[in-house]
Each structure stands twice: as C-alpha cells, then as structure tokens.
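User: Could you check the structure of this?
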Amino acid sequence: MPKHPAPRFALFRAADAPSLEESGVMESVPPSEAVLAGMQLMAGTGVGNGHFTRVLYAQGGMSLAYAWFKSGFPLPRHSHDSDCLYYIVGGSLRIGTEELKTGDGFFVGAEVPYTYTPGENGVEVLEFRTADQFDIKNLAANPAFWAKAAQTALAKQEAWQGESVSPSGLTKTEV
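Assistant: Sure, the predicted structure tokens are below.
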C-alpha cells in the first residue's frame, strides 16, 4: 500500500519542481566510516557543479525525477529500496560494459547496487520509481574510488561550468 493515496488526476510543471534535496523524497541511510571519509574528501571539490536534479512528481506510491549528470561525473556505487526504471533523455552513459544513448534505458531492482558514468557530453535521465519515498545507500567503500572521484571533480570544474545546456538542449531554468 502506498504511503500516500494516488490522486485521480494531477499535473506537474518542471518549473515548480523542487531539487531532490529540497523535496524530501530521498532519505540517506547512514554511511559506513569508509563512505563517510570519502564523502568528506569530496566536500571541497565542487562536485555539486557536476549534477542537477529535480523531483517532478512524488505521490501515490510512485515518483518521477529528472537528473542531469555532466561529463564524467563520479557517481558512487549505491542502491535504493525501490525499483527504478531509467530512460535516457539526452547524452549517453556507460553502465558495466554497455554504452547507452538517448532513447535507451535500464531497470534497477530494489536493493541492487549500481553505478554508471556519464558520457563525454553528460547524460540526462528520467527516473521512474515504484515509491514516493525512497532511500539511498552509498556503497562506495573503496578509498581509491573516492580519491579518483575527488581528483575528477576538481579537474572537471571548468568543463562543468561550460556545460550550461544539457545534452537534450534544455537549460537549468527550463527543467
């Protein structure tokens, strides 16, 4: 049973969508000491300049989020407690040995660990979840990952600043 009953009809507008952090739909599971140390290492790198997220809809046991990860964004290995279907709106990503492009997608079941790497022009995804509230468990406990991620974030600052229009052609103000 969903935490909130499904509405019979609802509209949503991208311009009114809160950020993932503002929305309150995702709860962070307390990280391990190794993950916490890595997150602290990332704190001063400007990693926030490499991504943009909005929760477009979250009601009735389902949610829809938009995420734009800029080129090479170091997304940590993580999982969620709900199923999620991803659709690539623009750009590309590498997941495992597969490269996915605009129009492709993938499904990740609840509690399945995953990560992906945005392509050279970044990637925009729509995330369809089977929950209107969900968690995130950061599973990147390898110090080498965090050292490389921090190095990447620092090195990408100029490039990320130049990526002001998403791969699909939207700007932050249109999403």
